[in-house]
Amino acid sequence: MDLLDQFSNINFYLFGTFPKGEVGGLLLNIIMAFLAICFSCVFGIMLGYSRLSCRLYIKLPCIAYIELVRSTPLIMIIFWFYFFLPYLFGGNVTVFWSAVVSLCAYAAAYQAEIVRAGIMAVPKGQLEAALSTGMSRYNAMRYVILPQAFKIMLPSFVSFFVSLFKDTSVTYIIGVMELTQTGIIVSQRQPDKIYAAYLSMAIGFWVVCFTMSHLARRLEKRIGVFDLESIRPDACRDEFMLVPKTKKTGEGVDETPSCCSSDSK
Amino acid sequence: MITGVKITLILLVSTTISSLLLGTVIAIMRVSRIKVLRAFGTLYVEIFRNIPGLFWLLFFYFVFPDLLPPGLAIKLNTYTYYPVVAGIVGLTVDNASYVSDILRSGRLAIPHGQREAAISTGLGRVQQYIHVLLPQMFRAALPPLGTRMVHNFKNTSLCMAITAPEITWATQQIESLTFRGIEATAVATLFYILLAGVMVSIIITLEKVLKIDISSISHSETAS
Amino acid sequence: MIKFIATNKWFHNHHVLRNINLEISKGEVIVICGPSGAGKSTLLRTINKLESIDDGEIIVDGMYLSDPKTDLTALRAEIGMVFQHFNLYPHKTALKNITLAPRKVRGLGKKQATEKALKLLERVGLTHRRDAFPVQLSGGEQQRVAIARSLAMEPKIMLFDEPTSALDPELINEVLDVMVSLAKEGMTMVVVTHEIGFAQKVADRVVFMDDGEIIETGIPPDIFVNPQHPRTRNFMSSVFHIPVFGETEEEK
Ligand SMILES: Nc1ncnc2c1ncn2[C@@H]1O[C@H](COP(=O)(O)OP(=O)(O)O)[C@@H](O)[C@H]1O
Ligand SMILES: [Mg+2]
């Protein structure tokens, strides 16, 4: 069977040499995207939240990081970590971890923007209601503001996951044995299987992305999309900070957003 | 490195224009009344958006020539600038799927009355699009379209995978020839950041100009 | 219970509270009225320090608000606040809206908090809506849940900022009824409202504000029927011509 022979490498595309050897192929893409999204989520929340501070010394570094990463191609970020991680951790950083760290640094900047939009979309009255029942700022954020923000963020979050998943293909450049790399190697070693190789790559990515982007669209219909571009880049929400900016020194903690709260309709 | 900059700029300008054109066509197809066109537009977006841009670059470089008659394939494979051409095509088809999605949302946001007004003044289908609908679509879609174009600019760096001699490829050449990769990468990163900054400021200016334009025509408040 | 001493507040250059002096004793029901932008909301929000003051002093139940050492959480736990737009938590059911603060601030167990919340829901007549989410409730129901949410912290003072002005006319009374019964039980209440019927029924004093100042204070008949100050007279005559208030009058 000719066709069967063409796709005889199917295991390679799906899991690499997995049970016997290293994980590879599509499974590796999924693992990388998953790890990157989990880690970057933590940084993204911190970055996005801090960016909403009205204190310039907190806000500016966050903006700088976010904007720098967002205007640098992923491939460059991957190169940078590929160069520098071995300096930091000695020579024994595998390409896999180098790729995950790069993806994470990259994703954090984008996630931060999603988080920022989500928090901005929660009305200020929610915080006031929580504070007026005596809740601490931390509890108000944790039980009232963030749960609402996360719900608003969910569709963008899933869309971003699709985009990040596609971006994991770029890590082939430093030799991660993921689906793209597998396809390229197979098509070079066995030129007669080039069509099968490319077809496997396309279908592999397509199935995962298609499923996720349909999930995203369903969520968008249910929850609604939030327009990221509509938020002014310098908008800040000091009232949502755990320690709001003091208005006058020696006058006690100012609880109000005196500086620059901005509507997020 | 200088050639690298030149090739990157060529990639940027040509893919921006071509993906806008292709994206517009696909977007119009997707809101068309003709079922076949709509299905085709949707199919296009579903296929190209769910497969990485990198794949399309590799596909147009390695596989596409083989699909053509042998004579043409050899011509393409020996053509010095084929990597650049494949890069332009690959980036265009990828980016156009996003552009069409953004424009389609822009089209759906235009109130029904606009087309009815256009029809009632006797404009034909094409004229409706050129004079009434497309300008509004682009205006509404400008901010996300801008973000998308910056993204597309960054994606030109992927063309190094198919040996298009753009700036990222140049840094890798310098790295392997002179081992001064860090310096080269730093310069290239700076280049990307600066050019992305320039693009963003162009978009912001464009937005301001168009906003003034709108408010002076209709005297209505535009959402800020 | 609440004492304003020469309180002033600015928003940038805008002088929103001008030399406010007001003393409210325990169990008193105060109605604040005045034109839009007069500073009524701001005055109310300084009491639980959602807004800070720039000058003067406010003393609430012995706590000095300008003292940075005042425990804000403790202060706010003693003061309930009801907002014009309800501000219910949209991601939580009516019951959970009520139990959140008692559990997180007072550290009540789930069972205790729920029992208490159910009593309060019964009191505002919404036991059957305990598992509804805010979007499923009418405006009047939402506002009653909001009142129950504040009461769950067993406050000594209740602040109301135009609690009925976002409601359809036919839903106003269900909220006012709850407020009247609260007033009759001896709760200290500060209410910003233009519901004159409510004021005449339960208010001990009415405070008329304009342009950041307290223009006039007195018992309801004096302020509504026989105001001394021309600005008050102006405002009252314009308000009495709004048909909604005419209805409330009739009903009385
Ligand atoms: N956060 C704020 N920042 C700046 N100005 C404000 C703010 N809140 C209220 N103001 C201004 O203070 C004045 C009094 O507002 P408010 O107390 O809400 O009036 P009222 O409730 O009587 O209508 C208004 O002119 C309003 O514009
Ligand atoms: Mg008000």
Description:
The complex is a heterotrimer of chains A (265), B (224) and C (252). With 265 residues, chain A is an all-alpha fold. In chain A, 66% of the residues lie in helices and 0% in strands. By secondary structure, chain B is an all-alpha fold. Chain B has nine helices and no strands. The C terminus of chain B is likely disordered. By secondary structure, chain C is an alpha/beta fold. In chain C, a hairpin with a 2-residue loop joins strand 9 and strand 10. In chain C, helix 3 packs across helix 4 and helix 5 packs parallel to helix 6. The longest helix of chain C is centred in the last third of the chain and has 16 residues. Chain C is globular, with a radius of gyration of 18 Å. The chains are: A mainly alpha (265), B mainly alpha (224), C alpha/beta (252). At the A-B interface, helix 5, helix 8, helix 9 and helix 10 of A face helix 2, helix 3, helix 7 and helix 9 of B. The site of magnesium ion has 3 residues of chain C, from helix 1.
Give the arrangement of secondary structure elements.
The complex is a heterotrimer of chains A (265), B (224) and C (252).
Chain A: H1 2-6, H2 10-15, H3 25-51, H4 56-70, H5 74-89, H6 95-120, H7 124-132, H8 137-167, H9 179-189, H10 194-223
Helix pairs in contact in A: 3-4, 3-6, 3-8, 3-9, 4-6, 5-6, 6-8, 7-8, 8-10, 9-10
Chain B: H1 2-30, H2 35-49, H3 53-67, H4 70-78, H5 82-109, H6 112-120, H7 125-155, H8 167-178, H9 181-218
Helix pairs in contact in B: 1-2, 1-5, 1-8, 2-5, 3-4, 3-5, 5-7, 6-7, 7-9, 8-9
Chain C: E1 2-11, E2 14-24, E3 29-33, H1 40-47, E4 55-60, E5 63-64, H2 72-78, E6 79-82, H3 94-104, H4 110-123, H5 139-151, E7 157-161, H6 169-184, E8 188-192, H7 196-202, E9 205-210, E10 213-218, H8 220-225, H9 230-240, H10 243-251
Parallel strand pairs in C: 3-8, 3-9, 6-7, 7-8
Antiparallel strand pairs in C: 1-2, 1-4, 4-5, 9-10
Helix pairs in contact in C: 3-4, 3-5, 4-5, 5-6
The structure holds adenosine-5'-diphosphate and magnesium ion.
